[in-house]
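Suppose you are handed only these lines of text.
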Amino acid sequence: MLKRRQFLQVSAAAALGALYPISLLGQGRPRNPLRIPDLLDGERLDGIWQYALEAGQGRSLFLPGLETATLGFNGNYLGPTLRLRKDEEVRIGVHNRLDETITVHWHGLHLPAIADGGPHQEITADGRWDARFRVNQNASTCWYHSHQIHKTGEQVYRGLAGMILLEDEQSRALELPDEYGVDDIPLIIQDRRFYSDGSLRYIENQRDIMMGHHGDTMLVNGTFDPVFVPVTRRVRFRVLNASNARNYRIAFSDRRQFHQLACDGGFLAEPLAVSDVTLAAGERCEIVADFGDGAPVDLVSLPLPDNSPLRSRGMMGGMMGAIANQGFHLLAIEPQSQLTATPELPPVLASVPDPASFAVDRVRRFELDMRMGMMGGGRGRRGGMGGDRFSINGRSMDMGIINERVPLDSTEIWEIHNNSPMMHPFHIHHGQFRILDRNGRAPGPHERAFKDTVIVAGGETVRVVMRFENYADPVTPYMYHCHILEHEDNGMMGQFVVE
Ligand code: C2O
Ligand code: CU
Ligand code: CU
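From them, the structure of the protein bound to copper (II) ion can be written out as follows.
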């Protein structure tokens, strides 16, 4: 094998001693062991499981020899993995040790709006906030991240995110790999861009807002060029796309088959044999791969197929094409020579109700729009770039406006129509929904389970059905929004109350 070296691509600005963007070409060696975020299991006190998160500044060594200023919970970058158990009471105490306001949102959790951690639950500098709720949903992989108004993209980019594992009796009873950090492995996938001094490059121009901010360097659990060494034959990966905007098409470099077990909100009915799985920003999946052949292999992200509905159309298609064509190495996998045997996957994972059987009380329609033109629009009414070019039903996010009021104990179809040429991952707080159809056609087998974030391709109409229950609050809203964080921060978000 050729000895590969790492090359720094430098621009002419280097000669001037100024900061310049760098790209790390070729996958550098030596590789770095994949970091596994600490597992925060909570402590039971007075019948309540207590967790503590502290947001602070950190310094991270991602790139060889370069330090990066980052944010993290209980550490330099990202946060610990929280393990929550169904039907238990939980209190998560958050202490914000930063000098800026943040929030901490529990993405995918069904809980009272006041505990949701959306833009209305601000935690000011050195402030504290307690989220109290009862874990009220099935086993799944969820996550938490800052949701500060207009700042979500930047704060998540700098590191304010982490994973949540939800367990229930059924998930514990299933014979699945479930030893955290051994055969049950979190993979938090993020793309980043760096300057020559190691600092993070965030939004630099209008294009980063229009298309969402895309990076050229991959981090997995905050590890650059990571390697993972399986010690068991089968490994379960919990894959979280915590990138601001990028879509991934996750696969193995030898195109081996693997099984998808779960999407955002929980298990599929049975393991699904696949050779790749696509994740948009905010989405998760659980997969199990078999390393019984002992061969080293890479986890990669493949370019989107030419006919992919995720490719943008028209003028945006040209601009987004370069991004859709990119492939990435994500994780080197080098199985150890003796692998512990693991049982076959169970044939049945869960009973997943047919969404067509839900009794529906009402249909609501949501139109997603983005005004085109890189230069057009000028400054928005909030003075920032991007302004109100992004909207839902003709309105940009306004903290003072409740856009929708949903009656408690009702079931609704939300019909999401994307008027723009570019895909948007649409996310709804409060709970998990099922996808009814895409342009009238049944959803794919990989998304036939509970979801909280759904890809809506350019021009597409997706209908989801969701039950609004358990928590009423006529004052405190939940959010719905595009999970491309630059779109969310620039107006493609709305608020609803359940009352
Ligand atoms: Cu992942 Cu409203 O957020
Ligand atoms: Cu959310
Ligand atoms: Cu969007």
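What can we learn from it? The mean pLDDT is 92. The radius of gyration is 22 Å.
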